[in-house]
Amino acid sequence: MSYETILFEIANGAARLTLNRPDRLNSFTLEMHNEVAEALTRVESDDGIRVLLVTGAGRGFCAGQDLADRSVAPGADAVDLGESLENRYNPLIRRLVALPKPVVCAVNGVAAGAGANIAFAADIVLAARSAKFVQSFANLGLVPDSGGTWILPRLIGHARALGLALTGDAIAAEKAESWGLIWRAVDDGELMGEAGKLVERLACGPTRGYAAIKMAMRRSWLTGFNEQLDLERDLQRELGYSNDFREGVAAFSEKRKPEFTGR
């Protein structure tokens, strides 16, 4: 399938999804939502894809919603923003979080509004040092969405999350790393190289184990301690029967690099 607003390619067990509206800082339109949704369906259904990389084209990662794609000028009819979240942004965030494969996000520039929270929904976030994250909703009289009010307090605590949400101030990549918002800030010229190395490593890893790690970590935000111990028991029991576990043990014993198949 050909796309107008994204780039999508598959190679060596990895899918790379690039938001591709650089003239509009890769802000979302209805068309982009539809194309991203179709690409995610391909990632979900193809067992040969074992990791997803999301990034942006040009000088920005994503500026959130393209306001020009909506009629919000003074005097225009009111727009149901809840409908947009219910049918587009919320399903996107849910799919990224639930995807049983690692999701890496390479933030190459500004990530604002929903664009920032889409990045934070990934499993591992790398950012160029020049990148900035902005919860720009308050500047429009809105609340952070796309999971922002849930993810931010859990990543950086109530005080910092509320401060970012109320002020709309930008936070630089290096501070985002020190606060625990992202995995790592890297030099601009090294971003895609570092992301590529990480994706290559994950594409060769134990995919079933990665899926279980993702699910267990996310579930821990919702369950009590005893329930989490039970979940660890159940997942470990299931993974103990996997081919990847047997291969991992054999490789350890034979002092060689494991050859995981994701099964």
Can you tell me the CATH architecture of the largest domain?
Alpha-Beta Complex
Strand content: 15-25%
- Give, in order, the helices and strands: EEHEEHEEHEEHHEHEHHHH
Q: What is Rg?
A: 19 Å
CATH level-3 fold name of the largest domain: 2-enoyl-CoA Hydratase, Chain A, domain 1
End-to-end separation in angstroms reads: 29 Å
CATH level-four homologous superfamily name of the largest domain: 2-enoyl-CoA Hydratase, Chain A, domain 1
CATH class call of the largest domain: Alpha Beta
Shape: globular
Topology:
Blueprint: E1 6-11, E2 14-19, H1 30-45, E3 51-56, E4 60-62, H2 81-98, E5 103-107, E6 110-112, H3 114-120, E7 124-128, E8 132-134, H4 148-156, H5 158-167, E9 170-172, H6 173-179, E10 184-186, H7 191-203, H8 207-219, H9 225-239, H10 243-253
Parallel strand pairs: 2-3, 3-5, 4-6, 5-7, 6-8, 7-10
Antiparallel strand pairs: 1-2, 8-9
Helix pairs in contact: 1-2, 4-5, 8-9
How would you describe what is shown here?
The longest helix has 18 residues, at 81-98. It is built from 10 helices and 10 strands. 45% of the residues lie in helices and 16% in strands. The strands form 2 sheets. Strands 1-2-3-5-7-10 form a 6-stranded mixed sheet, sandwiched between helices. A 4-stranded mixed sheet has the order 4-6-8-9. 39% of the residues are buried. It has 263 residues and is of the alpha/beta class. The model has no long low-confidence stretch (mean pLDDT 96). It folds into 2 domains: 6-203, Alpha-Beta Complex (2-enoyl-CoA Hydratase, Chain A, domain 1); 207-253, Orthogonal Bundle (Lyase 2-enoyl-coa Hydratase, Chain  A, domain 2), CATH 1.10.12.
